[in-house]
Amino acid sequence: MTHSLLSPPPLKDDCFSLPPGVNWTPVDQALDMLRARLHPVVAQTTLPLDQAVGRVLAQDQAAKRANPPLPNTAVDGYGVALASVQDGPTVLPLLPGRAAAGAPFEGEVGQGHALRVLTGAALPKGVEAVVLDEDCRVDDTHVAFRGPLRSGANMRKAGEDVDAGQIILNRGRVLTPADLALASATGLSDLPVFQPLRVGVLSTGDEIIPPGGQAAPHQIYDANRPMLLSLLAKMGHAGVDLGHVGDDREALRSCLDQARERADVVLTSGGASAGDEDHVSALLRDAGALNEWRVALKPGRPLALGQWQGMPVFGLPGNPVAALVCTLVFARPALGLMAGAGWSAPQSFQAPATFSKKKKPGRREYLRARLRDGCAEVFKSEGSGRISGLSWAEGLVELPDGACEIAPGDMVKYTPFSSYYA
User: Fold this and answer.
1) pLDDT beyond 90 at 265
2) What is the CATH number of domain 24-43+195-338?
3) What is the pTM of this model?
4) Which pLDDT score, from 0 to 100, does residue 116 have?
5) 194 band by pLDDT with thresholds 50, 70 and 90
6) Domain-wise residue ranges, the chain
7) Per-residue pLDDT tens for 81-92?
8) pLDDT at 18
9) Mind spelling out the 3-state secondary structure of the chain?
10) Class of 349-421 per CATH?
11) 350-398: per-residue pLDDT in tens?
């Protein structure tokens, strides 16, 4: 059974504003400002363990019970008291019965005797070490093995894994199947989680035709909406398909009004610059809630950040290559923060380049790339209209803000696409 808790407050209307005098914004500065000004915007609920995988934990969780709750055996074998073991060949009579997981031995294993014990069994009184099966020979009445044994051999202490009251899972964690095993083993049956972040995706422009439609020569099929919706699903968010709006400001206004009832945040593609038909930025500007960030990166640059009656809006470039890069670099960590998972950077690593590249200073560049034989190769063209390069690529090579010259064999920063989804 689920129940909703309080929702957090909306974002302030000026949360996306740039400091006075700032025109071109370095990537790191833009990221820092997003991180500082955003907060979770989703409500909480409680779910049973079998429904919680992939959800974001809303509160720290402590173990209700130690794991293991009692000292137990780590192997199949024979439990003995240390005083019974000689430094060399040892033969001991077997007590009747055994200790098994779920069927404890009620008696005591005194000096001069041994007891059959199975993995996971609660340790009977008197057992100070367990001899591994493979180190023993047995008949119906006795067990033989070689000593000496150390105290605690092949045994697990109570709470050896987790103590009762210990924090086992932290707020903001995206729950994995292993997390649910840990929660169950320590006595938890349900977990407080954030509701999925609802992210609306809207394409704009008269030139855009939905996939499968009849396109005139001057029109193009909508590549962004299927790309962004599937990307959001990989990130664990609830994508909301807001469809397509042509270059009609009033239609866009109506769409954004309706989106407030269906989404917590909206990603638009197209119309984010300052041209005559850039209606996203114009509409947000008219509402007094637009901040146009000219971010110093390639591909991308124009990134319209604003709010529509309290709902955050990320105005992405219309070019699919730039839209993907801006989503991965800026929207991904921001959405994670708004979803309650906190801010996270993707895992990157250094790899030798197979390419040559001379870069001017002034902006950060992201090249479509993939690894082959441990080396980073980049797509044959840097043209931002080459959508085939997105399909070809398996990650991005990031070049720094300053000038640089890359030669084959030089180390470059590579981030696989999979790191952006984690």
Assistant:
1) yes
2) 3.40.980.10
3) 0.84
4) 98
5) very high
6) 24-43+195-338, 72-156, 349-421
7) 999 999 999 999
8) 47
9) CCCCCCCCCCCCCCCCCCCCCCCEECHHHHHHHHHHHCCCCCCEEEEEHHHCCCCEECCCEECCCCECCCCEECCCEEEECHHHCCCCEEEEEEEEEEEECCECCCCECCCCCEEEECCCCECCECCCEEEEHHHCEECCCEEEEECCCCCCCCEECCCCCECCCCEEECCCCECCHHHHHHHHHCCCCEEEEECCCEEEEEEECCCEECCCCCCCCCCEECCHHHHHHHHHHHHCCEEEEEEEECCCHHHHHHHHHHHHHHCCEEEEECCCCCCCCCHHHHHHHHCCCEEEEEECEECCCEEEEEEECCEEEEEECCCHHHHHHHHHHHHHHHHHHHCCCCCCCCCCEEEEECCCEEECCCCEEEEEEEEECCEEEECCCCCCCCCHHHHHCCEEEEECCCCEEECCCCEEEEEEHHHHHC
10) mainly beta
11) 999 999 999 988 889 999 999 999 999 999 988 878 899 999 999 999 9
Classified by CATH at the fold level, domain 72-156 comes out as Molybdopterin biosynthesis moeA protein; domain 3 (2.170.190)
Mean pLDDT within 101-126? 96
pLDDT value, residue 422: 72
